[in-house]
Amino acid sequence: MRNYENYRDLIIVLTQKEMKVRYKNSVFGYFWSVGHPLALAFVYFVAFKVIMKIQMEDYSLFLIAGLFPWQWFATSVNASPVVFVGNASIIKKVNFPRSVIPLTTVLQDMIHFLLSIPVIVLFLFMYHKSPSLSWLYGIPLLLALQLLLTYGVSLAVSSVSLFFRDFERLINIFITFLFYFTPIFYPETMVPEEYRHLLYANPLTPLMISWRELFLTGHLEAASLLATLFYGVIAFVGGYLVYKKLSWKFAEVL
């Protein structure tokens, strides 16, 4: 029990540190967090709704509902290649589970995502909609699933990046590809049916669809939740195994 409390306190302290570092000397800290996905939503709205005339009602709301949870995943994974290097001084001085460091980065981005939900609520009201009571259990459930998936990927990426510094550039390219193969600015129904199964081979697809359905309709599909849980467990187990395989060499490269 004592170890659990120490572990919890360590996570809280490190997460607070990451938050302070991120917003140090930043006047518009919170607004930068929501500004990036809002800017992307504006670009895609102009490109696909105004210019290409995509036939979809409430397209702005559709974009916002997918871009905010995507931003959490993308920001955490893109930051993971440098989290161990950035905390080298702490790692060398204090003995604690190194796996906590990528977790605090993911938790920090999760907090930013939670703080962006009022923006989604505002857009709902703009389109004469309102939050559903299912948010009370749906949001915590999807938070847990995305945390599991994102942390697993981030743990693996941060561990490998210590030994292959070019991995950071590869991850940035990979995240860009993954974004366009995830139904965020387009519905999955636009993908030809014979290729739709390939879309669901993407671990982010069922998760992003679940977030969008929860925000827009208040519904959650069991199949998407189970698929997300499956991908999350695979990512977490895989990430932890990679970390355990490489962690004993961290001191040599930091």
Automatic annotation (TrEMBL):
The keyword Transmembrane applies. InterPro entries: ABC2_TM, ABC2_TM_bact-type. It holds the Pfam family ABC2_membrane. Its main location: membrane. It is found in: Cell inner membrane; Cell membrane. One of its GO terms (biological process) is lipopolysaccharide transport. Residues 28-246 form the ABC transmembrane type-2 domain. It is a multi-pass membrane protein. GO terms for cellular component: plasma membrane. GO terms for molecular function: ABC-type transporter activity. The chain crosses the membrane at residues 27-47, 59-85, 106-128, 134-157, 169-186, 222-243. Keywords: Cell inner membrane, Cell membrane, Membrane, Transmembrane, Transmembrane helix, Transport. PANTHER family: INNER MEMBRANE TRANSPORT PERMEASE, TRANSPORT PERMEASE PROTEIN. Belongs to the ABC-2 integral membrane protein family. This is Transport permease protein. It comes from Candidatus Nitrobium versatile.
